[in-house]
């Protein structure tokens, strides 16, 4: 049986030091692109895999991250978290880390599940999703000095300083969408969002408001996150006559789909509409959308949770955050003339 390749074998094949190989595996951003490509090529050619089992025996840690598997709820937007969990699993494996999925229906139930997993030594750290104002999970984890990073910023003004997080800059996304709509469609760019009070929704609305020129008409439409409510909200606006919107920026792809259906019914099938999440449903309907880049969120999460040797560290030692800038995916250009 052939001997498995080692870090030293990779270093020798790539003509670099052992530490450089470790950096490529665990902190690739600090390695020059040309060197990183050379090491990655040697890893692929040799078939090297980090020896996670040996490290777990040496450190007496599980090298495992726990994350809740959200219950299936159907609809349009759940794909973002699915992509995040897949990307996190793939990137963790490359670092010699493992992902343990657990189920919980409420925040309190999740705290109980996390406590059991930590006490049993089954996980070293937690990746939280779906943070919200007054989130008891972050307070419990901080109080118990449990390493964690959240996908979603702490919305509370007095959040614990040890709360490290990764999030998507929603305001930057809607600013991009609004700027594009102003340049390609016209000055009346409406925003279709959720009722006020949603931190994520309010952040996305802020980007639209910041991009609108001073003195421009601000048309703010409201609907809960569903295709039917969004369709009715936009249909009512289009039925009202007067100065109809030149384009609509939406807080989600679900709202965008409802807005598009209303526009088609009203005889305006080419009304520029931009969603948020870039889901397969939006792609299938040819709608432009904001791509959250959950793969970059996963990479940022692991940067905060994994140390130089790929082992789990406590982000409280260097609390930080990563704000991922989304990108605008334009699928249809508005007609000119």
Can you put this structure into words, describing what you see?
Helices cover 44% and strands 15% of the residues. It is of the alpha/beta class and 337 residues long. β8, α11 and β9 form a beta-alpha-beta unit. α1 (7-14) crosses α3 (33-46) and α10 crosses α11 (253-265). It starts with 6 loop residues before the first helix and ends in an 8-residue tail after the last strand.
List strands and helices in order, with pairings.
Blueprint: H1 7-14, H2 18-26, H3 33-46, H4 52-59, E1 64-68, H5 79-94, E2 98-102, H6 107-119, E3 125-129, H7 136-143, E4 148-151, E5 164-168, H8 170-184, E6 189-193, H9 199-211, E7 220-222, H10 227-239, E8 247-250, H11 253-265, E9 273-276, H12 280-284, E10 288-291, H13 294-305, E11 321-324, E12 327-329
Parallel strand pairs: 1-2, 1-3, 3-4, 4-5, 5-11, 6-7, 6-8, 8-9, 9-10
Antiparallel strand pairs: 10-12
Helix pairs in contact: 1-2, 1-3, 5-13, 6-7, 8-9, 10-11
